[in-house]
Specification:
133 residues, 3-stranded antiparallel sheet, 9 strands
């Protein structure tokens, strides 16, 4: 994992695509059902597109029908959660614990048999590393 925690704004803009920058650095959200990983069912690991930190294993992913990749749990210590009172609602924001990149939000409407949480994550904030075969 590269040390991308102290990049300047100009360096982030060079490193990331415009959509990744909008999501990771400005807290944006991609449109539902448009992300490249929403339907991905391959085995592997989802890492932060900003810094490469491991965030979610593919076995934690499920189809929530929400239009965004959804996970029941992150890797231990991979994310931080913050209160988000923007856009006229109160939600819990999820950010990468290494580079503080915005990933998405967590909601209490996930599968009950998996703890009841749904980590609703933007594809633009992720890179997928397929499992070695």
């Amino acid at each position: 994992m590269a040390d991308n925690t102290n990049l300047t704004d100009a360096e982030w803009r060079t490193k990331l695509s415009p959509e990744q920058y909008r999501v990771l650095r400005e807290g944006g959200t991609e449109r539902a059902f448009t992300g490249k990983y929403e339907k991905n069912k391959a085995a592997g690991e989802y890492v932060c597109a900003g810094c490469g930190q491991a965030l979610f294993e593919s076995d934690a992913k499920f189809d929530s029908g929400s239009g965004w990749p959804s996970f029941v749990r992150p890797e231990d210590g991979a994310v931080d959660e913050h209160r988000d009172a923007g856009h006229g609602m109160v939600r819990t924001e999820v950010v990468c614990s290494n580079c503080a990149g915005h990933l998405g939000h967590v909601f209490p409407d996930g599968p009950r048999d998996e703890g009841g949480l749904r980590y609703c994550i933007n594809s633009a904030s992720l890179e997928f590393v397929p499992e070695d075969k």
